[in-house]
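DEPOSITED CHAIN:
***
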Amino acid sequence: MALSIIIWTMILTGLVGGIVNYLMPSNKVEGAPGTKKQGWGESIGLGIGATLLVPLFLEIAQSKLLDRIHPGYELVYTGATVVENFNGSSESGVETDSAAVSTDPIDSAATGDVGSPPERPTLVRGDENDLDQPAPLKNYLLYAAYCFLAATAGYRFIANISNSVLKEKELEEAKSDLAAKEEEKKQLELINTAVARELELKKQQGVLQMQQEERRAQTRVISESGSNSTIPVLPPITNMDDPQKGRFGGLSSRNNRALKAKVAPSNLPDFYAVTIWVESEDPINSPLTDEVFFYLHDSFSPSLYSVTPNKFRNGKAMDDEILSYGAFTVGAITDNGATMLELDLALQPEFPKQFRES
């Protein structure tokens, strides 16, 4: 399609469409006969302006109507070039004088010699790629119809095209934002995974360090007590908030031995006085005669200590000097490592609620 024809089509259809828009009933003001919403000039201006947006409308609609547009037509001179053979005849079969035959039209015109046939002016398309496939007349008629509809609609067409462009832009921005958010989400997931792995590694390192410190403390306590007691190797720590939980079998009574506790308010606000002890459940037949090792939360210092038989009170291994603001699990080992006891203070309903939930 020629660009010049397209431009004239837009101008003429914009003019005609603007006139039609001016004469349409929708342009009349209700209750005021003879009064128009838009004047002649405004209607025609909007009509021509609307036709200028038709290419954008076709692009939005993904139409291929204007894909083969070209600048227009140009005048090209063409003609046959006659080349003389050695026998004095031309390649085209026309006999010529064996005298010099000029193939240059300018030289032939200047000297009067017999030369090539005169060049003929020919009107061809400006787009060389479109020469073999001329645009059908239907394309021009369709384009003129689009322009006429746009000009007739006037401002409504302009507004619709503007809204379409803005909505498309907003949609692209929304897609771009969504893609950016998805990428950010993936990055956050990767970061969270890395952080979780690092925390788990630090947790494992902390557990290993606590277990090493515990073994050193056991050795120190046994050495300080001067006893020959044996402490079994405990299972690994699985609860960082309550390290002793689950490491002593979960029972507070075993082998005629019982681990018990008492909790009462202390003189310090929000702190409680905790007393723990191990006693024999059959003092006559199975008295407690071996050293008792107590394991507390690692926030206490010391968190591991022992009570030797010479410090028993009424046959009980007791500690009544513990101050705590919350519950924890107590572990105990006696009978030279043969008896392991465990008591979770948070599960004892007789203790204060604030203590159990802290």
